[in-house]
Fold these 2 entries.
Entry 1:
Amino acid sequence: MTEITILEKIKAIVTPYVQRKEGLENFNDSTDFLTDLKINSANLVDVILDVEDEFNIEIDNTSMDGMLTAGDAKRIILNKMNN
Amino acid sequence: MSNNWNTSRYLNKLYTTAEQKYISEAQDPQLILQLFWSLKEAAYKAHQRRLDLPRSYNPLEFSCEIISEDNSETTGSVFIGNSVYHTISIITKQYIHSVASFDNPSNFISKIFDAEIDIKQELLLAYSKITQQEFQLLSVQKNAEQIPFFYRNKTKLHVDFSLSHHGKFSAFVLALTNS
């Protein structure tokens, strides 16, 4: 799976929770879930569960703590998929 | 409420074993689940501000306990690292609003508004009125960690406050001091 595909899948996963739709334009590694997309922090866990399901991986709490941007999520996904 | 709320996958990412036990034994588990989340958020903001920490997403490190419940408010404690925050929560049919503090828990004012209201402006108006400072000179700006501070012109003020937005409501909490 390419990095671009992963980013596109992340974008699809977060979209239902996004409260600031303009943040979805130019979706890239530095897109911040909280400040750019204004995803409610109460929904971050839902995003993480959806990512686990989509990529068939398990995201432990330490990884979860570092998942604040699309790029963070992409790196964690790649890391988990390759192990 | 998330559709996932009753699954162990969801609960295990957000709530400690002790919290999950308390939730499952409660008369209204969903309410306690939402209350604990409200406490974690309030304590997270207070903790981040107090220690000037970068942002993090580590709900399991915040451990909530309920101390007392009566008709008007619920008091509790949240443990994070070596710190303990005292919490006061108002629970209505429409919202749960929690305030976490490290020191004196009752020296603050808190107001809740409909989401359309400009909450920053309401907060600055309240602050300027209480401290008799000119409203025009005041502003709210965030630092690199996304923590907001009051500024009078270019001077950063050392006042503790918090802004929250959730769905149909927004709120502010302003700490009152004797200085």
Entry 2:
Amino acid sequence: MIGSPDVIIVGGGVIGCGVAYELAKRSVQVALIDKTLPGRATSASAGGLWPVGESVGLGCGVIYHNTMAAQHESDKNENAVENVSGLVILPEIFRKFLQNSNRLFPELSQELFELTGVDIEYEPGAGLLYLIYQEQDFKLTDQLKQLLPNMDGLTVLSPEETWKIEPHLTRDLIGAVLLPGEYQVNPMLLAEAFKRGAIELGATCHHDVHVDGLERRGDRVTGVNIDGQQVFCGAVVNAAGCWSARLAATAELSLPVFPVRGQIVLTESLPHTLNACLSTNGCYLVQKAHGEVLIGSTTENVGFDTSVTVEAMQSLVEGSVRAVPLLKHVGIKRIWSGLRPGTPDELPVLGPVDEVSGYFNATGGFRTGIVASPLTARVVAQCVLSEETEFERTPFLAARFGNQVGSPIQPGK
Amino acid sequence: MNRRQVVIVGAGPAGMAAAVTLCREGVLPTVIDENPQSGGQIYRQPRNASQQSGSNEVLKDTRGNQLHRQFQQCREQIEHLSDNTVWGIYSHRQVACNGPDGCQMFAADHLLLATGAYEYVCPFPGWTLPGVMTPGAAQSVVKSHGVRPGKTAIVAGTGPFLLVVALQLHNAGVKVAAIVETARRRDLWRHCPGLFWDLAMFAEGAGYMRRIRQAGIPMMWGQVVTCAEGNDAVAAAVVAPCNEEGVADPGQARTIPVDTLCVAYGFVPRFELAQLAGCEMEYREAMGGWIPKMDSHLATSIPGVWVAGDGGGVAGAIVAQLEGTLAGLAIANSLGRLDTATFQNRYRKLSRQLAKMHRFREALDRVYQVREGLTKLATENTIVCRCEELSCAEVDAGIESGGTRSRTLKVMTRLGMGPCQGRMCWPAMARRIARKTHQRVEEVGQFSFRPPTQPICLGDLLADNQTLSQLTDRPTVIEKSVKNQTL
């Protein structure tokens, strides 16, 4: 029923759907194969488009780095990170990648809406606000200004200026950092729109189909195995998210991608309350298009366990009520978790590998998968077609890990 | 962590019977229930004695009264957390609940889910008007608050429960204009032999029919309420005859003025906690839909998680009570409080009774089956998802553009994304998708529930106003001497 398409994409999250769309646009016959497993990161994403925020650790990265620092502390590791305030800068090349990708959204949302009728709820708001509760965090903003001298619009706000943008914020804050141009989107609708767009352009989509493994002959991946049947194709794209290492392993390829759990809390729908995306050192908050406030997120290295924990709920709730006190009396609609595809250096793994031909990675999106998806999709499609990529791909190739990989690597170590 | 040996969720017939059984075997159970008093929906007690609508109550609930008495006798041994809603089940049988004492979390060695069922509602034009409610809601209003829901009512849908509610409304002083039953009288005759499997139950049903006649309530077989009319509230119900599939014939419709319209088409197991606990599920049309897979001792696929009563398949209060007893014995046995020989002995007796009841039930289910034509009642503008205010046309558009599975339809249309998580809309919508896309209902898929399954506020989870870590473990077994007092 799948036939023998030019390209098989394994994984129907935002990345797989995006690659399917970009390939279908280039008249490639694509089959997208998806098996819904609990924990897919696209369904548990806030949909934050925070390229600078994430690459300097002011988005959900604050929580990530706090978690890592706490882990180091408890491990009594000598190399413990000194800076617990959360400023960890990712390579500049990755920040540029995210910024370029982010710039694609206005046009992309229009294009997808015209093609599919799906509105991805791209919402330009006030930007990303990082709330400052204590004096020492101002050091962080100074550091930031030094690191990003050309960063337009990065502003340090007084409490009064902050409340002007966001009147419902706590009176406890002593300032904030505003990153303009950092907005949000509905991640599930983005994936759906990519998928529908791909189908509209001739791709086929196969739901609830489990790929047992890759078919490798010598130094070539020739297809995939489904239910003991071989399905041949010109190339396979591994977009299996946190499960991508398992898929790669079936072709004896090592890929250091591991699940990093994030728990999130979603409130009931509220009238328009928040103008900006909010980040604090305890949680981030985003009000979605239908009025719900999404509160994220933990960063936990617990394998493929998708359960949620009381401790996490409490810490997220405390962080959010501290930032926006009126939330205390607001109802919770859902609490759930997703498994981000993490990598040791927090950068995605894209493009071809040295060991085999006919195989391409499109994985490792970790906490920036949504914002990175438009450009990721294009770059991977260009790799598959051996075209010149519109963004330098070398920093994202699996080859950067050398041969030392294989088993999941502890994040932060 | 608050460890408990046995946590029972639900104090209806199944939960009460299990609690009583466990107490008699010397195990102290914790019973968590959302109502102020035990009894569940079927054996619901009035909030206080003066509200007893039944000085002229014809229906002496003897089974219910007996169970209430037994439960009362064990109240010293039972930790009964009333007014507490369970809103989540986490790994290792952790039960999260919220009540007057705030949020609490219990880790149970054994968890018995006796959550019961909710009513199957099928959207039709006008069903969101005030005055339209489920028979169960009308029953609650009369039974716990002693309040009449209106002056003139129609009780409609399918199943013997309609008779019970019609009589309760009648006895509370409501004029019941008609009982509108989708099943046709000939369906009853055709499956009549099967109903002889349980003569006592058959006689009980016949008794209800007799009292309905005596009360002068017209019984309209083979008819369906197609529409509720009214501006600010329901003023009339449109009733039309239907065929075997439940498809109404609008040509023969007639309008009956009412201010209360009670409609439901049987019951759907309340399975969301079992799903959250990770239990393997299966689809059984005759049992009301998705239910957890269980072995003959009512154990689910998750060790230490048991299910009894309608939550494991709709079969009514008597079966629920038997299953509750069985689950109680099985738990006592696995705790080593009841030797296996005795357990096997009592299990055989119970399973014979259950088998008899199930054969009766099968015949009853064939009479009162959920008919496919009911999914055609909704018109374009009928709201089908009340939480998200989605019209039937919007959902149909979602189905047509590829939302043929629960997950994709949810993402596309937001169906079931509201606070009820699809409890209200999904059973009917799953059938509608199945009909439109020529799939079986089980292929459309189940809805995945996420905590909280009952409303809680962010403030409820704040560490300073809750008791999550302060409670201590309670003793889990009592001495045999205490146990015998209750027998």
